[in-house]
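Notes to self after the call with IL:
- keep both proteins in one doc
- input above output, always
- annotate only the second one for now

Protein 1:
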Amino acid sequence: MAKDVSPKGSIIYKLLIVLLGVALIFSILYPKYIWDQEDKNTVQCRTNMEHILYAELTYLTENNAYNDTLSIVSEFIKSDTTGMRLRNYMTSDSALSQEIYQYFKSNNDSLASQIIDSLLAFGKLYDLDTTAALVIDSLKTSNEYAEKIDSIALASLDNFYTCPTSGKEYIVFVNNDSAIKQIKLSCPIDSLDIVKIEKDFKLKVLGGLKLKNHGSIDNGENSWENR
């Protein structure tokens, strides 16, 4: 019986088709991965700056001044044995409150979810400015919930120092000389970081990444909502 042998050219042709298919899939999936990662970094960078702002406001309340050294601000809150500074920080920071709510919902804790949903609805109905405090204080009546809530808040204080894209520390400008104290927080991504990406074949050519500064918060007003 004669053997069914494919011509050598046919094998090469099929191999080229496979390679082209792999290249096509890579050209679609890799840029998406790079863009998705930068989108996550952008959100996290902005969230970090919000955490910093409310940590600074907590510091300002007792010291009548902002501090441009974030480690001092963080330690000021964490060193309070009464827990009141940590409470004030987490209940005033809406982004942090949302992280806490999301934690319990994503873990399918039905009791915590019911408490959160019912008190959020109550706060919305009566237009309460203290809704976050009401929700968190209610959850913290359980020692188990209290430990997790505090750990989330403490983790935010430990991890808000640097931009996740550049790895550089945030730019913190404070002015305590005026009657109304001023603070501006800025993402540290600059032109040098952008040029570095432009020269990175993997990120720029293959990934199609276009790096941008993530914005700033100037005395409570963030730049990204104004665009």
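Protein 2 (the one to annotate):
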Amino acid sequence: METLERFKRDAAERALALVEPGMLLGLGSGSTARHFIAGLGERLASGTLQRILAVPSSRESAAQAAALGIPLTELPATGLDLAVDGMDEITPALDVIKGLGGALTREKVVASSARRFVLIGDDRKRVARLGERSPVPVEVVAFGLRRTRALLEGLGARAALRGGDAEPFVTDNGNRILDLTFPAGFAPAELAAALAELPGVVEHGLFLGMVERAFLAGEGGVTEMTSERP
């Protein structure tokens, strides 16, 4: 576990090198993003960085940032300079599954608002195709949950309510999460389009064509992956 945390810190350090004074930043959520937020707080405290404003993607990230003295603001209509977050899976094309931490909707709002979206993580997150190890999280409204679940299963998925029926996980937005697994596999772009059409679905954890670059750390150091899209 100590080695894994070191990898996350190493990846976070590479992303921190992209932060410049005066930037408006999007802060991700989860165990890897916490290292980025911690490093950002250290640089502000030491004076290495100045005039930073940040938009957190979860209550957890907001609490950590506030405790470190990182100035926070609401997401402006003009968007963000840079957003940095972790991921659950990433392909060579930089398509990603996110949301195992439960903050996928706010994370996607923040990521899509940034001129540059950068991911950090460890080498375990590499996959040849999405869905190899991670389910596809889908945030749904509580009203009509059984119907929404049936519609999702109609897409060929097994839909598991996160936390179970007795104590379901509740997102920062007051919604539920259904984790989808596809025994027969899935086409990411087609699935994303289908999910966007379903009533009751708030957002999904497929982040496709959004990432500029990713820093993945392992025993051999930090590897930078860049998007080949124009």
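Annotation: The helical segments are 2-16, 31-46, 59-67, 104-112, 145-153, 188-196. The chain has two domains: 2-128+208-219, 136-204.
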